[in-house]
Each structure stands twice: as structure tokens, then as C-alpha cells.
Design a protein that fits this description.
Length: about 140
Amino acid sequence: MGFAVLLALLLIVGAVVARRRWGRARDLSDVSELSDLDAEADANRWVVRLGGSLSALDVRSRAEASTSAGADVIAAQALTAAAERLRTARDELATARTAAQYALVTRTAVEGLAHVRTARTSLGLDQAEADGLMRIG
């Protein structure tokens, strides 16, 4: 009789310990999934922001191309570099699965925004908007 009670007690304790470990492991995996999802959303936001900034600037620079030939060369080079970063960021975003990969996408998009700022500055477009492009957060 004593053996059966001891065995039952050990089984109960083992089940409680196993349940707690399983619960902690599940909680930790949920946190890592949330951080990957947050990183994905953040990276996507920067890629969209770069695309919008680039398309708006491209339209403005074409409209002003006839008035500023010297600045047009610098702006064209900056726009080309920004467009390349946008393509790269979109490709990286399509294949990214981890927070580190999404961080690389974000970094690429922010680099593209720096090129957009260079183009805006060379075209003499309003600096307040250009500074707003680089504000993180």
C-alpha cells in the first residue's frame, strides 16, 4: 500500500513539473514569434516609406529637371541608388523569416531614405520634409 501511494505521489509531482516546463517553453516561443512579427511589421513600414518617398521625389525631380541641370546629375545618382536599395529591400523582405533578417531589410530601407534625402537636398526641395524622412520611430 505504501508503495502505491509513493508511486502516485511521484507521478503527480512529475506531471506538475512537466506541465510547468512545457508552459514556459510555449511562452518563450510565443515571445520569439511576436518579436519576429514585430520586426517584419517594422521592416515593411520602412520599405513602404522608402517606396512612397522615392516615387514622390521622382515625380518632383522630373518636373524640375528642366530648371536645374547641375543638381539633376546628383539627384539622378541618388535616385538610382535609392531605387536600388528599394529593390534590394523588397527582395530581402520577401525571403526574410527571422528578426535579424528583418533588421537587414530595415537597414537597407533606411540607407535608401538617406539617398532620397541627398536627392531632395540637391534639388533644393524643402529640408523639413527631408529631415522627417530620416526621423526614426
